[in-house]
Task: structure prediction
Amino acid sequence: MSILVDESTKVLVQGITGSFGARHAQLSIDYGTQIVAGVTPAKGGQTFDHAGKKVPIYDTVSAAVRESGATVSVIFVPPAYAGDAILEAVDAGLDLVVCITEGIPVMDMMRVRAMMEGSKTRLVGPNCPGIVTPGRGEKSFGGCRIGISPGYIHKRGNVGVVSRSGTLTYEAVWQLTQAGYGQSTCVGIGGDPINGTSHIDVLKMFNDDPETEAIIMIGEIGGNAEAEAARWAKEFCKKPIAGFIAGATAPAGRRMGHAGAIVGGEEDTAEAKKRILAECGIAVAETPSVMASTLLQRWGK
Amino acid sequence: MNIHEYQAKELFDRFGVPSPKGKAAATPKEAYDAAKWLDVKNLVVKAQVHAGGRGKGVFKSGFKGGVQLVESPEAARDVAAKMLGEVLVTKQTGAAGRLVRKVMVTETVSIEREIYLAILMDRESRRPVIIASTEGGMDIEEVADKTPEKIIRESVNPLAGLQAYQVRKLCEALGFNTTARQFGRLLHSLYKLFIECDCSMVEINPVVVTTDDHIYALDAKFNFDDNSLFRHPEILAMRDPEEEDPREVMASEFGLNYIGLDGNIACLVNGAGLAMATMDIIKYYGGDPANFLDVGGGATKEQVVAAFKIILGDPKVKGILVNIFGGIMDCDVIASGIVEATREVGLSLPLVVRLEGNNVEAGRQTLANSKVALITATTMADAAQKIVAAVQ
Result:
């Protein structure tokens, strides 16, 4: 088991012919992920060719779903069009939409989330590295890689990883893999202030997943998502959790790269979040260098 | 992105938010002309800088007050001459102060009472929220702290927009009766401005009711969503690079994300989260970061060179830490970029490089072969300890 996606998940790529989308579609195919369709308006009927595979391209998501049976979409569409791309995927009835695009206007995401109320589709992102359920082959190949994470750093195992940041996720995953501990699923929820899936949503899924035995939760300054997740975990989570919060040295009122990473009030500083995590029984990593070792210690390994 | 008060007035005029009549002036002569054009007895001249506390600010020339009441065009001209080309220091500018290149001349209004009004994007509810208070003109955080019952919040459904009943509720709570229609129009106009200009916040403190029953937005603060500026060339044109850190301006030209800080250890990192975490670990081991710098996921050699130039442009910097997790990027390409950059800029400061990820062995080899005097590190902790030791 794993969460959200596994080896058999059929994935379609929105924006498969753009340079970024094409590159990562190729890397996902190399990793062994079932990339079954691509969508680029006005390029329907063409194919995306890589490693002996011919992935059919469609004009619309609904046609791609009908023909390919895809249940998950990954979006590499430029920011101005990404909101529309998400809504098209929701309209096509996909189970999961993973939006990689960075720089979507906040107003667009506000409307997208409001329009998604009541739909069955889960959105992960935007501005995220995506999701990896590692495979069982060499260097974890044979798994499901959706997005832009480097596949080879993973190893199949029992730690769930959830994070707002891309490279910080890779750092945690690499520390785990080097220590000999693999991952069930790694979920990048993205660094924007309005996103589809929050830390608490992913913690709930990890808690219910029999393969996940321990969890690393990585957060940063801004908002209250980590505090909300920690309070839930204190009450309901049965599994050991280690946490790290980036941005202890960030000055108030400055946006630190991610649109969501900005200290507004007293509760959304790194200091406050770390304190809340610790109060809720989460082992807090003092530095990003010890994310894995902090978990292993709490886990009794 | 921030804008000046006179630019905020331009936006108010465009959307029909009433504000006192006024004009910006770049010379004493223009200030005189503006005052003549206004043709009223009581005028106010305000220095235009991106910082609050102007009224209590002091110019480096010794002249006191960045906001001055005057009663004639001649006096407006004389006051403008004392502000323009001078550096104003307020509690928000820091000791360096800000050069005043424009003033704004407006009519004064006789104030009956003051209201606080703001619209902001609330990330938790994912909706625009209107915040209002009868305690206008005060420090709103203090009001929220001491008398939270005096803060009114009204959340707006983004798909339906601001409804008439919400305006009636706000009017009642704020005690408007004869001026309720005027305030309603102001609120609708302001909401339209907030949405159409992709604001993340617009704050008017205060909205004033005059003794002759008029309503005006007196002072405004805008924040725009940087992600949306691609579709607002008219707002982007209001950007004043003179008010920004020149290193941040240069960084944005190269697609780099840079924020200057006060320490002496510069960092160059890929990814915003990792960049913040790198600053944190420097601090943890007793150092002080000089900046936040995210070179992004697909940094080119040109970007790395530009990043080094920006870092070295800060005289406080005594050492550099490069921390790259090359996920998809080839570490060897990054290593070559670092070597080229150090040659091009003639590096003389201690440099610690921590590379991890794709093709890292080749990258480390390239660094070793380059004969560039750098210190290599394996983990983030190792790198942070080495650079902290090197600058001591």
Notes: Chain A is about 35% helix and 25% strand. Chain A touches chain B through 61 residues (CB under 8 Å).
